[in-house]
């Protein structure tokens, strides 16, 4: 019956994670998947999250189905963090938000919905981007092309090429944008550059779909959401997928959100209905437990600042590791220009020069990076960073 099934080549990130897990070497270092490790090399359980879990675990409320759109309190909390606490768009009821199965679930629901109502549109993703972006939009039935983003020669954002390309796009083209901590490059737009993109979006009547999986890990919660707020100010309609996996260290609970910013409240109520239908057809309703934990943290006046401080500490540790990696690389391979690392932000760095050496890095040094040359800086700590610098220097010499 199933003899015609072809073999799955595997996923460049998740399949490598299994190889890392099965590697018996104690000195192995995981810089592949986007996981935040603390300085002791552990994936932390945040204190604010543990306290919220105690509250949720103590509840004797029945574990019934959530609505298709998820927990209302969770959706309110998503709107607060993504759009800001005093957002005009939220206040006027023109934002429809649902709880989703991680950020990927939000992208899937959003792309299915868009395919139904914009069947003639096509999608544009940055070159490079997170591999699953193409898969999800193609899976929804869109044709997907890339827009220029990262210049491998300068190892920096190529804003001139990106903006020029956007000026050529047809109306209603879906443009997938990373508001902060670009995955995989860590090369982000400045606020002034985002303003220019917002202007082009308005002029060309483009349809932005934002993927914000790292809010708080770039410059701060509000700074990282600059693009969201700028599009709202400009009166644009758009979608934003957000994820709490990294910033709550709750990867396995799959907590995300999808928001659609509409022209008015009437349009938003129809957007909500269409998102609910897309959810029902995909997985019926989201799981409850992780969402209750997240909403407990975000809506509690004591836990919320505790959590924000924990995320701020994560961000600062990542920045410190980036600086130490840069210092180590300059020391071990001074002939190479490593300054691009310091221009990157968030969980990742991107060094395409390392891409051909991925297997050697794994086999000789036990250092796992993604085949594109993406490095998860959040996997570095004070005990392993120099070993990583030496390994990178060794393969490039
Ligand atoms: C990553 O980019 O490593 C993470 O977003 C995990 C994933 O699902 O790929």
From TrEMBL:
Cofactor requirements of the protein: pyridoxal 5'-phosphate
UniProt KW Transferase keyword: yes
Molecular function GO labels: identical protein binding; L-tyrosine-2-oxoglutarate transaminase activity; pyridoxal phosphate binding
Protein name according to UniProt: Aromatic-amino-acid transaminase
InterPro entries per UniProt: Aminotransferase_I/II_large, Asp_trans, PyrdxlP-dep_Trfase, PyrdxlP-dep_Trfase_major, PyrdxlP-dep_Trfase_small
Cross-referenced NCBIfam families: PRK09257.1
GO cellular component, one term: cytosol
């Amino acid at each position: 019956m199933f003899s015609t099934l072809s073999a799955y080549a595997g996923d460049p990130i998740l399949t490598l994670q299994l190889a890392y897990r099965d590697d018996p070497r104690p000195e192995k270092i995981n810089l592949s998947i986007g996981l935040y490790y603390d300085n002791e090399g552990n994936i932390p359980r945040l204190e604010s999250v543990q306290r919220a879990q105690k509250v949720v675990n103590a509840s004797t409320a029945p574990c019934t189905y959530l609505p298709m759109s998820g927990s209302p309190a969770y959706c309110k909390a998503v709107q607060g963090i993504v759009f800001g606490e005093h957002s005009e768009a939220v206040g006027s009821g023109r934002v429809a938000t649902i709880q989703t199965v991680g950020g990927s679930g939000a992208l899937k629901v959003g792309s299915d919905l868009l395919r139904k109502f914009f069947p003639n549109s096509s999608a544009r993703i940055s070159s490079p981007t997170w591999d699953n972006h193409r898969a999800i939009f193609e899976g929804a039935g869109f044709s997907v092309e890339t827009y220029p983003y990262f210049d491998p020669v300068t190892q920096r954002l190529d804003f001139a090429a990106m903006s020029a390309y956007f000026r050529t796009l047809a109306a209603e083209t879906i443009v997938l944008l990373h508001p902060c901590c670009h995955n995989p490059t860590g090369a982000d737009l400045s606020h002034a550059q985002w303003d220019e993109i917002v202007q082009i979006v308005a002029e060309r009547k483009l349809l932005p779909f934002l993927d914000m999986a790292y809010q708080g890990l770039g410059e701060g919660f509000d700074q990282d959401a600059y693009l969201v707020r700028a599009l709202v100010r400009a009166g644009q309609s758009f979608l934003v997928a957000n994820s709490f996996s990294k910033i709550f260290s709750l990867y396995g609970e799959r907590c995300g959100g999808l928001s659609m910013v509409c022209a008015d409240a009437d349009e938003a109520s129809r957007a909500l209905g269409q998102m609910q239908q897309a959810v029902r057809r995909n997985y019926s309703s989201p799981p409850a437990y992780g969402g209750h934990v997240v909403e407990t943290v975000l809506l509690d006046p004591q836990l919320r600042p505790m959590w924000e401080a924990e995320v701020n500490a994560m961000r600062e540790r990542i920045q410190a590791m980036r600086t130490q990696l840069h210092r180590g690389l300059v020391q071990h391979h001074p002939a190479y220009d490593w300054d691009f690392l310091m221009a990157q932000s968030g969980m990742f760095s991107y060094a395409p020069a390392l891409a051909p050496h991925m297997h050697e890095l794994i086999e000789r040094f036990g250092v796992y990076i993604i085949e594109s040359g993406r490095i998860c800086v959040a996997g570095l700590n004070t005990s392993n960073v120099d070993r990583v610098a030496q390994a990178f220097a060794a393969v490039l010499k």
